[in-house]
């Protein structure tokens, strides 16, 4: 019997010659996505938010896989900072072919306890941030006649969740962004999303009491949290040569939490 927790490794060389920017790359899912893209041969721009030490460590690990890397820091909500980081990265590594909008912000708060600043913090990272990075990367992709984008939405965009109204709203908005942009810039630029279920990462850990995990996983098929390394292969597939018909789609990486 195969181990259902060991996803297949990316086909080596599939993405050789491509440059991939992963935002929030030192986060749990970001790093896993970088590793998988690098295994497929992509050079990686490791974007982070003032986490240089971790970024350099990740770059070292990726370079051991035989790819080139650079690390850049920028707050994704700051247009000028993102523009400067992109210029720096592209000067050193070349034009960005693949963008993974992974950086995200989640906080747990009921609607009646949420003030406008808290609401806006989630919207600014999870929506403005994606808009800014994408807005600055897409013109180059269109000019060169090719590009691929994957946006990190969430299963919660479909299910909703008590205490996460801002996050669920932002991640649902990201699906609208994905679909609209896919129509606008496709087929030149292939734009898709993934919507993971709960993954065992520090974003989830603060909430992960046994009751929380039970509630979040009881109606899934696998009945457990996902693992970061189970996310990368889907991203690598969507940006790779095997997904030419995927435009504006969402892959549900949720172990059967939302079926469809
Ligand atoms: N962990 C899960 O269960 C889960 C499930 C569904 C979707 N997601 C989504 O996957 C993505 C990654 O999640 P994760 O679990 O790895 O979380 P994480 O907290 O480990 O990583 C998020 C990253 O985003 C970066 N970031 C946050 N605000 C930023 C800003 N203003 N500017 C630049 N970078 C910023 C952080 O530095 C961090 O590296 C997020 O978009 C999240 O919403 C996660």
Helix and strand topology:
Elements: E1 19-22, H1 28-39, E2 43-48, H2 52-63, E3 69-73, H3 79-93, E4 98-101, H4 116-144, E5 147-152, H5 156-159, H6 165-185, E6 189-194, H7 210-217, H8 232-239, E7 250-251
Parallel strand pairs: 1-2, 1-4, 2-3, 4-5, 5-6, 6-7
Helix pairs in contact: 1-2, 1-8, 3-4, 4-6
Structure in a nutshell:
It comes from Occultella glacieicola. This protein is α/β, with parallel strands linked by helices and 260 residues long.
Features:
alpha/beta, Rossmann fold, seven-stranded parallel beta sheet, 8 helices, 7 strands, binds nicotinamide-adenine-dinucleotide, SDR family oxidoreductase, KR_dom, NAD(P)-bd_dom_sf, Sc_DH/Rdtase_CS
Structure description:
The protein is an alpha/beta fold and 260 residues long. The protein has helices spanning 28-39, 52-63, 79-93, 116-144, 156-159, 165-185, 210-217, 232-239; strands at residues 19-22, 43-48, 69-73, 98-101, 147-152, 189-194, 250-251. It has a single domain (19-198, 227-251), classed as Rossmann fold (3-Layer(aba) Sandwich), CATH 3.40.50. It has 8 helices and 7 strands. A 7-stranded parallel β-sheet has the order 3-2-1-4-5-6-7, sandwiched between helices. Helix 1 (28-39) crosses helix 8, helix 3 (79-93) packs parallel to helix 4 (116-144) and helix 4 packs parallel to helix 6. The radius of gyration is 17 Å and the shape is globular. The model has no long low-confidence stretch (mean pLDDT 94). It binds nicotinamide-adenine-dinucleotide. This is SDR family oxidoreductase. Belongs to the short-chain dehydrogenases/reductases (SDR) family. Residues 18-202 form the Ketoreductase domain.
């Amino acid at each position: 019997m195969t181990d259902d927790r060991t996803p297949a490794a990316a086909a080596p060389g599939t993405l050789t010659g491509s440059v991939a920017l992963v935002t929030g790359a030192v986060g749990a899912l970001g790093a896993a996505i970088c590793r998988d893209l690098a295994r497929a041969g992509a050079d990686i721009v490791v974007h982070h938010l003032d986490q240089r030490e971790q970024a350099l460590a990740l770059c070292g690990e990726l370079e051991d896989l035989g790819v080139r890397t650079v690390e850049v820091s920028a707050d994704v909500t700051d247009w000028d900072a993102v523009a400067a980081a992109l210029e720096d990265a592209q000067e050193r590594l070349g034009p960005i072919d693949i963008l993974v909008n992974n950086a995200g912000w989640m906080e747990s708060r009921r609607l009646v306890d949420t003030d406008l600043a808290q609401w806006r913090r989630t919207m600014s990272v999870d929506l403005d941030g994606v808009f800014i990075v994408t807005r600055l990367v897409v013109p180059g992709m269109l000019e060169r006649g090719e590009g691929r984008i994957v946006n990190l939405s969430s299963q919660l965009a479909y299910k909703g969740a008590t205490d996460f109204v801002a996050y669920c709203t932002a991640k649902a908005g990201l699906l609208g962004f994905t679909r609209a942009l896919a129509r606008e810039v496709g087929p030149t630029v292939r734009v898709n999303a993934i919507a993971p279920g709960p993954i065992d990462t520090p974003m989830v850990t603060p909430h992960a009491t046994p009751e929380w995990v039970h509630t979040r996983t009881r109606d899934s098929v696998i009945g457990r949290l996902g693992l970061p390394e189970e996310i990368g292969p889907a991203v690598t597939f969507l940006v790779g040569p095997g997904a030419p018909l995927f435009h504006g789609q969402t892959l549900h990486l949720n172990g059967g939490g939302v079926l469809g």
